[in-house]
């Protein structure tokens, strides 16, 4: 077998081997960890224990990048993993924004935009399941940027509450708002087109 064929053989067989790895469920476990972290983070925010809340939000933010990297790099993607990742992100971020707004530490209008975007996405996903069937989430680049900016905003707010040097959270608030609106519109357009194609094909 030539080197080229060997290389092709290796490329073809590596994903299958990786899917049989005992570590293939690690990304899902990390996503579940983020879900578990939601309750203690919310409790710490309500207690105004900013240092501990900051630590756990940072852990959740890092884990979001780690599970995505592992799933893509080793071919461990799955429908369950995609759903768990999306649910973990939305649950964590919505709860944090709502609590900080309720405590008066984040703008109420920003929390409403964040919640509104996720409500649109959740409603669209439910309609897809009811009218079409199985859903396979594929977050767009703008959606990933929106999630990242929300995490950055939360970190800057918590740093400011601890009187640590931090970038102006006001600028990040507007960036979060713009990305939420952009990603929400992008979601509606992309999935409406996919739904139209699926219905026509059916």
Please report which band the strand proportion falls in: under 5%, 5-15%, 15-25%, 25-35%, 35-45% or over 45%: under 5%
Task: Note the gap between the termini.
Answer: 45 Å
- Secondary structure: number of strands: 0
Helix content: over 70%
Radius of gyration: 19 Å
Count of separate DSSP helical elements = 7
Note the main sheet: none
The helix-strand sequence is HHHHHHH
Tell me, what's the shape?
Answer: globular
- Which stretches are poorly predicted, pLDDT < 50 over at least 5 residues? 1-15
Account of the 3D structure:
- The protein is mostly helical.
- It has helices at 3-19, 26-46, 50-74, 79-102, 108-131, 141-161, 169-201.
- Helix 2 packs parallel to helix 4 (79-102).
- The chain is globular.
- Mean pLDDT is 80; it is low at 1-15.
Descriptive keywords:
202 residues, mainly alpha, 7 helices, 82% helix, globular, disordered N terminus
List the helices and strands and how they pair.
Blueprint: H1 3-19, H2 26-46, H3 50-74, H4 79-102, H5 108-131, H6 141-161, H7 169-201
What is the compact description of this entry?
It is built from 7 helices and no strands.
């Amino acid at each position: 077998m030539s080197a080229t064929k060997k290389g092709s053989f290796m490329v073809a067989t590596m994903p299958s081997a990786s899917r049989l790895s005992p570590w293939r469920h690690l990304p899902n476990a990390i996503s579940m960890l983020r879900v578990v972290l939601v309750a203690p983070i919310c409790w710490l925010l309500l207690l105004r224990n900013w240092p501990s809340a900051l630590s756990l939000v940072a852990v959740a933010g890092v884990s979001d990048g780690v599970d995505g990297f592992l799933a893509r790099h080793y071919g461990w993607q799955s429908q369950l993993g995609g759903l768990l990742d999306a649910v973990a992100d939305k649950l964590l971020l919505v709860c944090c924004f709502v609590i900080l707004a309720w405590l008066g530490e984040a703008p109420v209008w920003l929390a409403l935009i964040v919640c509104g975007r996720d409500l649109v996405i959740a409603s669209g996903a439910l309609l897809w399941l009811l009218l079409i069937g199985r859903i396979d989430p594929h977050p767009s680049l703008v959606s990933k940027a929106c999630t990242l900016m929300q995490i950055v905003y939360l970190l800057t707010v918590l740093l400011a509450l601890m009187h640590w040097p931090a970038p102006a959270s006001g600028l990040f608030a507007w960036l979060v708002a713009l990305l939420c609106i952009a990603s929400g519109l992008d979601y509606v357009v992309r999935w409406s087109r996919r739904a139209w194609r699926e219905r026509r094909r059916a």
